[in-house]
Structure formats: structure tokens, C-alpha cells
TrEMBL record:
It comes from Galbibacter pacificus. SUPFAM superfamilies: RmlC-like cupins (SSF51182). Residues 8-107 form the ChrR-like cupin domain. It comes from the Bacteria. Pfam families: Cupin_7. This is Cupin domain-containing protein.
């Protein structure tokens, strides 16, 4: 028996940027677009994030790791500078914070929810 799997294309340009709110906390100047929602986990493991100039996301742990690709602008992950086209793989249980002095847009894959430290 052949199983047909349907692809799911998301036209991200048609999605609105929404303020990033996690567990009731608003991260000022950080916006999100969900690319894939996991109904079972009640979260989006694949997202776009936009940081306005001066915005940041606090120091946190990645129980399931993370992948970040910088689409536009630049950011700092801990003390490492990343620019458009740069990719970061964060191994399981590694920790960092993210900030952007001039603003950026990032593509993220986050298999498990992060833990703010």
C-alpha cells in the first residue's frame, strides 16, 4: 500500500508578525511568525523571529537543541556576532542569550521548549 504524504507550504510573507509572548511574558521588540505548529506539543518548533534594533531574548537553556539561520541583519548569540547567511547549531542542553543592536530576522528550529534561566 502506497501512502501519500501531503506537503505543507507556508507563504510566510502573507503571515503577520506577532509580538513574542511566552508564558505571559512579552519580549519587547521581538516578533514571531509560526511556520509549523505541533498540535500535540501545543507549540511551534519552526518559527521566524524578528528583533527590532536593541531587542533581546534572555539567557536560556535548549533541552532539545536549536538551529538558527540569520536571514537579514545581525545579532549576537552570547559573545558571538552573526550576520546574514550565518548558521548556528546549538547542541542539546546548551545555553545562550540573543540580542540585536541593529535588528534582524532569524529562522529557527527549536525541537523542545526553551527554559528561561
Amino acid at each position: 500500500m502506497k501512502v501519500t504524504v501531503k506537503n505543507s507550504i507556508v507563504k510566510s510573507s502573507s503571515l503577520a508578525w506577532k509580538p513574542l509572548v511566552e508564558k505571559g511574558i512579552l519580549y519587547q521588540g521581538v516578533y514571531v511568525k509560526s511556520l509549523k505548529y505541533d498540535e500535540k506539543a501545543k507549540r511551534s518548533p519552526s518559527i521566524l523571529l524578528k528583533f527590532e534594533a536593541g531587542a533581546s531574548y534572555p539567557y536560556h537553556n535548549h533541552p532539545g537543541g536549536e538551529d538558527i539561520f540569520v536571514l537579514k541583519g545581525s545579532c549576537k548569540v552570547n559573545d558571538e556576532h552573526m550576520g546574514a547567511g550565518d548558521f548556528l547549531h546549538t547542541p542539546i542542553h546548551c545555553k545562550h542569550g540573543v540580542s540585536s543592536a541593529k535588528g534582524c530576522e532569524l529562522l529557527l528550529n527549536i525541537p523542545q521548549e526553551v527554559e528561561i534561566l
